[in-house]
UniProtKB/TrEMBL annotation:
Matches recorded under SUPFAM superfamilies: NTF2-like (SSF54427)
Key word rRNA-binding present: no
Gene3D superfamilies xrefs: 3.10.450.50
InterPro entries hit by this protein: NTF2-like_dom_sf, SnoaL-like
Keywords in alphabetical order: Plasmid
Domain SnoaL-like span(s) in chain numbering: 19-144
Transmembrane annotation, as ranges: none
Official protein name in the record: Hydroxylacyl-CoA dehydrogenase
Superkingdom, taxonomy of origin: Bacteria
Length: 151
């Protein structure tokens, strides 16, 4: 079996690798803001008219103000319960579109750590986004999260 290994990647491969790294960094920053309950800065990673669909809510959250309210409400629940949530994503797929947007899909795990307890996986999800370029960074215009246990 022969493996074709080129000494230099093509310009297109290099450009995509750079884009992929940007998207990974975007999600690392965005999810750390979410886990830290930094509502305003987290909401800034979305467009003004963003739509956020998540199974825990009966209707999509719309706009940054809605995102901020939702995150603050979640923070209050976690503080009452004494639990800490953290998110992890992997298996990231990035698909550039002709209009300049990016369609992404990844697996997302939500871990819960009760006060004084051991961490456990709370939810296994798929997260699908439409990302748009805005002021030299990416922003989420639309997010749809589905949970495996509700599929």
């Amino acid at each position: 079996m022969t493996i074709d290994i080129r000494a230099e990647p093509t310009a297109r491969e290099t450009e995509f690798a750079s884009l992929y790294a940007q998207v990974q960094q975007f999600y690392a920053d965005q999810l750390q803001l979410l886990d830290a309950h930094d509502a305003e800065r987290w909401a800034e990673t979305f467009t003004e008219d963003a739509v956020f669909e998540i199974p825990a809510l009966s209707e999509p959250v719309r706009g940054r103000d809605g995102l901020i309210s939702t995150l603050r409400r979640n923070q209050e629940h976690q503080q009452r319960d004494g639990a800490r949530l953290r998110r992890w994503i992997g298996m990231l797929d990035v698909r550039p579109q002709l209009d300049g947007t990016l369609h992404t899909r990844c697996s997302a795990l939500v871990y819960m750590t009760p006060h004084g307890g051991e961490s456990k996986v709370l939810h296994v999800c798929a997260m699908e986004d439409v990302l748009v370029r805005s002021r030299s960074t990416w922003r989420t215009r639309h997010r749809r999260v589905t949970r495996d246990d509700l599929a």
